Amino acid sequence: xxxxxxxxxxxxxxxxxxxxxxxxxxxxxxxxxxxxxxxxxxxxxxxxxxxxxxxxxxxxxxxxxxxxxxxxxxxxxxxxxxxxxxxxxxxxxxxxxxxxxxxxxxxxxxxxxxxxxxxxxxxxxxxxxxxxxxxxxxxxxxxxxxxxxxxxxxxxxxxxxxxxxxxxxxxxxxxxxxxxxxxxxxxxxxxxxxxxxxxxxxxxxxxxxxxxxxxxxxxxxxxxxxxxxxxxxxxxxxxxxxxxxxxxxxxxxxxxxxxxxxxxxxxxxxxxxxxxxxxxxxxxxxxxxxxxxxxxxxxxxxxxxxxxx
Length: 309
Fold this sequence. Notes:
Distance between the termini: 59 Å
Helix content: 25-40%
Number of domains: 2
CATH class of the largest domain: Alpha Beta
Order of helices and strands: EEHEHEHEHEHEHEEHHE
Largest sheet: 6 strands, mixed
Strand content: 15-25%
Oligomer: single chain
Radius of gyration: 20 Å
CATH topology of the largest domain: Rossmann fold
Strand order of the largest sheet: 1-2-10-7-8-9
Structural class: alpha/beta
Shape: globular
């Protein structure tokens, strides 16, 4: 009560509680896709940190707290290409933890500025070594100072894929009206694909789960791995994929431009690659419901030249 006025109690989620429950968006009808096939994407930029990585980062931090590996005196440290680091930095700021990150030096300027805004301590590593080099850098630092850090190790931490097992898969299943027939996702840490595919197959064994990766070791699909030439994540389970696809950087760039200019979807490069892969699946179906994931928004990539090509 303020003076003579009484206000109702406001019940609203905290920043952390806002992670998850992102919308499932219907994509437009593309040429060559049967009218009996629908394609949807989870718009993960609705998470407070702006990407799908909020889910995994929160899961790994909470598991660290539960196990006692993360205590108030320790700094959260990990290797990242950008989005998981932003999620760590955002959650760390909200929960009162220091965050230190190893990031390849060629990461986009937008992601670098976001990390700085959240107050993360960023160490830039050799761009030619990618996230593999950043991982090796962190592992050595943690080995030299084990008592200073909590190292979630997103590439090898089961709490990564478990976040999607508990949340992303259930959301997709319910939001599609239990009608999803095909799930398509890219492989980076592999957490999104592994956790979501594992749970979807438990919910309905007929759902086909398709993974994709870049078609070359030298690619521009931020956050994704060319598994034949990269360090394979420990949490990756190749047996979960009913099919493996490849997507070129050029096709993803072209799709990103098309989605923005023709459809109003300003999405990140890996999101555009997801649509390319989802359409490879959709165009050969007579009927079905194909669901993919938009990991983040295009605003994190606006400094890249491909937009003007």
